[in-house]
Design brief:
The structure is a single chain. The chain folds into 2 domains: about 1-140 and about 315-345, Medium-chain alcohol dehydrogenases, catalytic domain (Quinone Oxidoreductase, Chain A, domain 1, Alpha-Beta Complex); about 155-295, NAD(P)-binding Rossmann-like Domain (Rossmann fold, 3-Layer(aba) Sandwich), CATH 3.40.50. It is built from 10 helices and 19 strands. The protein has helices at about 40-45, 150-165, 185-195, 210-215, 230, 245-250, 275-285, 300-310, 315-320, 330-335; strands at about 1-5, 15-20, 30-35, 60, 65-70, 85, 90, 115, 120, 130, 135-140, 175-180, 200-205, 220-225, 235-240, 260-265, 290-295, 320-325, 340-345. Strands 3, 5, 6, 10, 11, 18 and 19 form a 7-stranded mixed sheet that branches. The two termini are about 15 Å apart.
Length: about 350
């Protein structure tokens, strides 16, 4: 079967390969791939920035944003042939930390977890793959065109869950949220904010293309060029999805008392940012502000994400996927093009 593989740490090593069928020990549920979403993580692995091959192997099958249809599953697994499924990305470490031991592997304490397509476990960019039943999530059949969005939606489902858990330390009645960045994660964060009945502002740099309309069609407000600090003054919740260091510090300290800011974007680093640490400390302490980081997701968040996608306008979700490329042209999916929001590799063409 065909798969996109890469030698982690070696730029230019990615290629479309012929690889063996997935072995039964990889998981009891055999899945035929339908689509694979690509993101900045895949671009960085292909560039040689990081990634880890399975033990004893040189090459890693790429891809962590999956969508497929079950070909075979054992009786009692909870799955049947024809089910639409997504594989959960992270697996707990073999010597579980306290969090991994109770299914909260997204909060692993010892770093010994593995991740499909990223760290020591083959990914989902192959024509067929296997996952353990406990690491597969069933989707509503109506999500066949857009279910590949489940993994990024799970990331923001976790972010919102943690925002709300922190908010409940006191009387919690948020009205307005600010999302910075209108990429796929930012747009999905805005979707979940609107599903919670909040007024949502989305800040991005572009002034044309699909992003402004996607935001407006959610019933949210799109901003380009407005200072982030000004928007933060009215935000009870901030979901920061860009990882831009200066933007983070423009927001922190400007939010109203008791605000919760979630950092969901990762900075590329290398750009020093001048910070008035004393003033920032004073503002956060005196106003009971919280700033926290969030990454990955566990099964509960995947299930929350599946429910959110099932409730969303399928036409809006379909427009979020702006480009679909066949497997034999997989490299095109990693190219950034004007107007791109989400690009996926389509295994059905």
């Amino acid at each position: 079967m065909r798969a996109v593989t890469v030698v982690p740490g070696r730029p230019g090593s990615a290629r479309l390969d012929e690889v063996p069928e997935p072995p039964p020990e990889a998981g009891a549920v055999l899945v035929r791939a339908l689509a694979l979403g690509v993101c900045g993580t895949d671009e960085e692995i292909v560039s040689g920035a990081y990634g880890w091959a399975p033990p004893g192997r040189e090459r890693l099958v790429l891809g962590h944003e999956s969508l497929g249809r079950v070909l075979d599953a054992p009786a009692g697994s909870g799955f049947a042939a024809g089910d639409l499924v997504v594989g959960i990305v992270r697996r707990p470490d073999p010597d579980p930390c306290p969090n991994c031991g109770v299914g909260e592997w997204d909060m692993c304490r010892n770093g010994k977890y593995t991740e499909h397509g990223i760290k020591e476990v083959d990914g989902f960019c192959s024509e067929r793959f296997r996952v353990p039943a406990e690491h597969a999530v069933r989707l509503d059949p109506g999500l066949e065109r857009v279910g590949v969005l489940l993994e990024p939606t799970s990331v923001v489902a976790k972010a919102w869950e943690h925002v709300e858990a922190i908010g409940r330390r006191a009387r919690w009645g948020p009205r307005r949220a600010l999302v910075t960045g209108a990429g796929p994660v930012g747009l999905l964060a805005a979707l979940l904010g609107r599903q919670r009945g909040l007024e949502v502002d989305v800040l991005d740099r572009v002034t044309d293309g699909p992003k402004p309309r996607l935001v407006r069609d959610l019933g949210a407000t799109y901003h380009a060029g407005t200072p982030a600090g000004e928007l933060a003054k009215a935000a009870d919740v901030v979901i920061e999805c860009t990882g831009v260091g200066q933007l983070v510090f423009d927001i922190v300290g400007k939010t109203p008392p008791g605000a919760v800011t979630c950092l969901a974007g990762i900075s590329s680093g290398g750009r020093p940012v001048p910070v008035d640490g004393a003033s920032l400390n004073k503002a956060m302490v005196l106003e009971n502000d919280v700033v926290f980081g969030s990454v990955n997701a566990n099964r509960r968040h995947y299930e929350q994400a599946a429910a959110a996608l099932a409730k969303a306008d399928p036409g809006w979700l379909d427009r979020l996927i702006t480009r679909r490329v066949p497997l034999d042209r997989w490299a095109e999916a990693l190219e950034r093009r004007p107007g791109d929001v989400k690009t996926v590799i389509d295994f059905t063409v």
